[in-house]
Specification:
By secondary structure, the protein is an alpha+beta fold. The chain is built from four helices and four strands. It is globular and about 35 Å long.
Amino acid sequence: MTDAIDVRCEPTGDAWTCFVTVSGGGSETHHAVTVSASDLARLAPNGEHPDDLVRRSFAFLLGRESKASILERFDLPEIGRYFPDYESAITRGR
């Protein structure tokens, strides 16, 4: 069974705050992720919208840990602190 990932991003100055709901298996988790313009340009330089990048990033995380283990609030690059292969994996996956 796979978890459903719902992402809604709102611009906040020079960044976006993305609200993520991960649901499946009878439970759901809620997260707030900040994506700066420079992070978006580095991780998705082909004009990808931040909600697509965040959705792919959560798919990456869910391949490595349960939804309950994902931080409730974080800046997108923090994923790389816990999973050093994140940036190379996410840029390859474009």
